[in-house]
Amino acid sequence: MEDIPVILLAAGSSRRMGGVDKLMQIVDGQPLIRRSAEIAGAVGPVIVALPPAPHPRYAALRGMDLDVVFVPDADEGMNASLRRAVAQVPVSARAAMILLADLPELTSDDLRAVLRSVTEHPDKLIWRGASSDGVPGHPVIFDRSLLADLAHLTGDGGAQAIVRAHLDQVHLQPLPGQNAILDLDTPQAWAEWRKNQKS
């Protein structure tokens, strides 16, 4: 699956965190953004979209083998990152995996499970992680034929419009628990999650 790069979306501004960067929160002993890059790097080459430098996220990723994409228009929303990152996908890639950087329970095994579904369900165009009870989440793999559509998205809606347009071509791959959907967008959510981790 080396021909399926992972696009790690990490250019957002954590608007709901009250000035705290959620991607710099410590998870498993390291900043969340580095943890996310590590699990991505375990399954394929990584293209990471980052806000303009200087930014603490660059230091958190220092020394890693990543293709860094700068997103000067990150304030537009997620699709600015998608457009710029998709432009870096090699022409030889059969597909690309889109991964949000703020999923603290997702693992490299989860990413591998979604990657395997590409081979196991070759009749589909989109392969997507889901919670154990079937709620669609991340990561999401898009066939090469859909990358041009990703490259023309605007705003902050992500790739949902493309997914909706191809619902009959989507395979949902259940992952353990809430791994595919658990993101923490507020200090309160982080505090509650840490409390549950300790218990």
TrEMBL record:
UniProt keyword terms in alphabetical order: Magnesium
Positions of the MobA-like NTP transferase domain: 6-169
Keyword Ribonucleoprotein: no
Pfam families given in the database record: NTP_transf_3 (PF12804)
The protein, known as: Molybdopterin-guanine dinucleotide biosynthesis protein A
GO molecular function, one term: nucleotidyltransferase activity
